[in-house]
Amino acid sequence: MISFKEKVHRVVKKIPKGKVMSYMKVASLAGKPLAFRAVGNILGANRDSKIPCHRVIRSDGRIGGYNKGVCKKSSLLQKEGVVIDSWKVRIK
Fold it and tell me: What is the 3-state secondary structure (H, E, C) of the chain?
């Protein structure tokens, strides 16, 4: 049986460059729609660079936290072409 953590990692690995997904959407796709806080905790503890945690944002469009710092998350997203205004992602 696959753990929720592994399901979260699998979902996040599929987010393409230049795209973002909310913690809530990740939780839903991993099979537990109300576990969005758990998704944040799982991603906050992740150290595997193959899992693009920086592509997961809050449902309100704010970029949320990142284990390497919010500035680093913002920088990575901008390098991938994501537009950020006042720490919020502008969805095209």
Answer: CCCHHHHHHHHHHCCCCCCCEEHHHHHHHCCCCCCHHHHHHHHHHCCCCCCCHHHEECCCCECCCCCCCHHHHHHHHHHCCCEEECCEEECC
The band of 62, judged by pLDDT with boundaries at 50, 70 and 90, is very high
Write down the CATH number for the domain with range 4-87: 1.10.10.10
Beta bridge partners of 57: 22
> Catalytic: 53?
yes
Exactly one of 53, 57, 63, 77 is catalytic; name it. 53
Tell me what pLDDT residue 90 has.
Answer: 75
